[in-house]
Amino acid sequence: xxxxxxxxxxxxxxxxxxxxxxxxxxxxxxxxxxxxxxxxxxxxxxxxxxxxxxxxxxxxxxxxxxxxxxxxxxxxxxxxxxxxxxxxxxxxxxxxxxxxxxxxxxxxxxxxxxxxxxxxxxxxxxxxxxxxxxxxxxxxxxxxxxxxxxxxxxxxxxxxxxxxxxxxxxxxxx
Amino acid sequence: xxxxxxxxxxxxxxxxxxxxxxxxxxxxxxxxxxxxxxxxxxxxxxxxxxxxxxxxxxxxxxxxxxxxxxxxxxxxxxxxxxxxxxxxxxxxxxxxxxxxxxxxxxxxxxxxxxxxxxxxxxxxxxxxxxxxxxxxxxxxxxxxxxxxxxxxxxxxxxxxxxxxxxxxxxxxxxxxxxxxxxxxxxxxxxxxxxxxxxxxxxxxxxxxxxxxxxxxxxxxxxxxxxxxxxxxxxxxxxxxxxxxxxxxxxxxxxxxxxxxxxxxxxxxxxxxxxxxxxxxxxxxxxxxxxxxxxxxxxxxxxxxxxxx
Lengths: 174, 308
Description:
The complex is a heterodimer of chains A (174) and B (308). Chain A is mainly alpha-helical and 174 residues long.
């Protein structure tokens, strides 16, 4: 059998991609689901995001925030999918109750808060997901979205106002 | 809020996991293992011959457009003539159509795939018996030389900047970051396509689609409706003509959706055909809506700018 020598840098790149997928894949999948509201589309979006990330790995500097970098790619990919969905003028949304069964107490009112976040306009969803789900600092949220920190803070405040109204006392505290 | 949202999502979505199987699928793709190998052979020559024959068949399709679709087509032509906008560049805008008095139309192409603060909006006014009048919100751009140079430093992005931004994503992001830093007020709110909001906010059922604020059930074409292959043939011909695609482009294109809606007492039967293709490193999402009985084109759309 003939073996083809694979250059180390190629293997390194693949290992790096594998590490990124293992570390960030599930969080990206859940985030993409919140944008796209469709499990299959979310899987496709994450797969596309990692393929784009692989091609751009050389642009990821050692001291840069890889989470912010990946989320930016994922959000752009999801928005692209949504633009295509607009073009189609077709929405294939599936409810969160149609997801594969989760291993949590079914009486927990998680769906309330998640539905409220999913119903936010995209620009508010962006900041909420990055700040509260991904746990990013406001400065990183702003950088990821390509907006100013002040704009990110404004959006967070407005998103919080909307969530406060929708959730009433569900889960809400600051 | 921070921990509670995270905990709620992690708990509720615990079954949504990016597992090793999915990672391996991505790795196989980056290694090129899932791509079909092409051979230059007799079969390739035969395939090319078939493509040419198919191209001739598509070119033979007669296209008819609704007044609105025709207005958008004329407007696109006017933008190409006056501003040199390519189809790919036009794909970052979406048309908003307004019928004026008589047969006049005003079509506004709203910047969406790139910041509106940079690409602006284009407007075309079409009046019967008169030449189309096209304008751009940056027609009075201060630094014409910078605009014409194609530099991403220009505060107004014309076709050269858009083309550059569609291909060189990193340069686009870097340039946008600089512009935001220089003029944060202009970028306070990102422009968004207004998505249709359903009157009754519920989940879609099996085989149901959400279209322009309503829930539709996918149907099956009747004997009086165009069959799917005919609808696809018309849609492909329309895409080739509208966006100057080559037959080779369309041959590479992937059919992503073919949705049929049956007629109701107040609505025509409809085909919605969608394709995806990469042309000159730019991803194109193409869509055509057809009257399923007459084959009349109701709208033709293109989106670009999704490469990151």
